[in-house]
Amino acid sequence: MPKVAMTPMPARARVALTREVSSAMERCELTHLSRSTIDIALARTQHEAYEQALRGLGCRVVRLAEQPELADSVFVEDTAVVLDELAVITRPGAESRRAETATIADALSALRPLARIEAPGTLDGGDVLCVERKLYVGVSGRSNRAGIEQLRLLLSPLGYVVEPVQVRGCLHLKSAVTRVGPTTLLINPRWVDRRAFTGVDFVAVDEAEPLGANAVLVGQSVIYSASNAVTAARLRRREIDVRTVEISEIEKAEGAVSCCSVILSVAG
Ligand code: GLY
Question: How far apart are the first and last CA of the chain?
């Protein structure tokens, strides 16, 4: 038999961009929550444990410097939508958050070609749920139709389908639904209509844990808030590897696990 020369596949690694908790986090945007005292030191400790969970799942964590003047800047997810081909720098719906994108664009510019959402479009990364080549995008208080249409125009030529999805009663689409497997969604059906999604199956949150639909899928495992023990048990019964983290202070800022990282694959 003649020998066939095999070209080795380039190794890929996972990078998780994060950012230090802002010392101003107490002045964060709040939409559906009342303000309560945030312990910044505890928030930082919890955030470090979250970063450690990312490392435990094989991510190389790149933590960006604190932005002491930008209260919500730990929530890096909202500033960029990163695909293998392109990073789209968003235009966050909350004006107080728009300045967060500059340093994210700097960090991503070495890793991906960049595109941007422009006014009057608004888009928060927390509204973008990618399942295979389809991006479901929340029509929310943060992401508007103009921003979603810009995203569609950027991504359609790359073979992605962009599908607007109405959300109700929560901040972002990913407050209501996230991936816990390649095509398995964890959902709070009170906040988003499950009929909006095709070719997937669902795990519903426990009714007493409405904030429990947010998870970060890394490989075969999910990072998940320790606040939602009943839903966590439900996921484990589905044989999903659930790594819980305490994020009480992040949750007081109307944040969740997915908000605190942008995960992308890079050449290893
Ligand atoms: N506090 C998170 C947000 O409103 O964007």
Answer: 33
